[in-house]
Amino acid sequence: MLNKPASGVLALRVGSTYHTVRLASVLAAALPDRLVEHPS
């Protein structure tokens, strides 16, 4: 069983991971035109 502090830490870690993935997705969407040379 998780106590409240442990579940709070888990929620914080999940939230952190979500924001990291979201930021990576935004950057990945913004950068290909500049960094990836590929035929249109």
List keywords for this structure.
40 residues, mainly alpha, 0% strand
Draw up the topology in text:
Elements: H1 4-30, H2 32-35
Tell me what you see in this structure.
It is built from 2 helices and no strands. The protein has helices at residues 4-30, 32-35.
| Unreliably modeled segments | none
Question: What overall geometry do the principal axes of the alpha carbons give?
Answer: rod-shaped
Counting DSSP E segments of at least 2 residues, the number of strands comes to 0
- Overall helicity: over 70%
Q: How large, in whole angstroms, is the Cα Rg?
A: 17 Å
**Structural class by helix and strand composition:** mainly alpha
Number of helices: 2
Task: Write a concise synopsis of the structure shown.
It is built from two helices and no strands. With 40 residues, the chain is an all-alpha fold. 0% of the residues are buried.
